[in-house]
Amino acid sequence: MKRKLRFFSLFIVLFSVFLLSACQKNTRNVYQEVKKSNEITWGVKADTRLFGLMSIKTGKIEGFEVDLANALTKEILGKNAKANFVQTTAKTKIPLLKNGNIDAVLAAMTITPERKKQIDFSDPYFYAGQSLLVKDDSTIKSIKDMNGKTALAVKGTTAVANVKKFAPKAKVLEFDDYGQAFTALKAGQGQAMTTDNGLLAGIATENKGYKLVGGTYTNEPYGIAVNKGQTQMRNAINRALVKLKKDGTYDALVKKWFSGIPGFNIKEAEGEK
Description:
Largest sheet: 5 strands, mixed
Number of domains: 2
Helix content: 40-55%
Strand order of the largest sheet: 10-9-11-8-12
């Protein structure tokens, strides 16, 4: 009986600690915390060219989103503020955010209804959408031209369903990753590779003789994610985004990373269709 009582008492103590921890997480005010520390910890990608990629030369993550995070940090907290970066993946970014390991996620994250159930998003900062990557001499000009042709896509993405929606008579070959899909394009197994325009732009920068065509045929904008209930932090990010767009900083960063890529429409990415 005494052992049962001790076990029950221990259970009550542990459960109380769990509840206290959960309450503390729910009552955190990230905006007030970053103001006090003068630092913001961002979850970013480190494997996606142009957005966030680990540099072999510097050992640091570099890209459009890293530069944008630095600019947002200084706009929100002041010129002496510090931006910290934590590498995230598709599987880790939401858990890291929910657990309080990072303050916000800036990692090519599409705003979706499903994700909105778990986290909150800022206004869009990059208007991504599905596009096509083809060889320079290709006769493909838009998604409609893919009817009767073969598109190359990655398994587990929305690309397959989107191709079928806009080009019902197209055939789609699926691969495990983007590297395999692009290799198939080079080998002539299909007439176009399809995924987000930003990801295709990254591939085009590394491979001469390829270009994006047809603009975007879906609307899948990226947003900055914060934990549920962090309204002050989200509002601060939105205000900072507006200021960076007004003073030209945002436009300069987009041009720095995406100008000169064959077929990539900068104005479209900025939301000016």
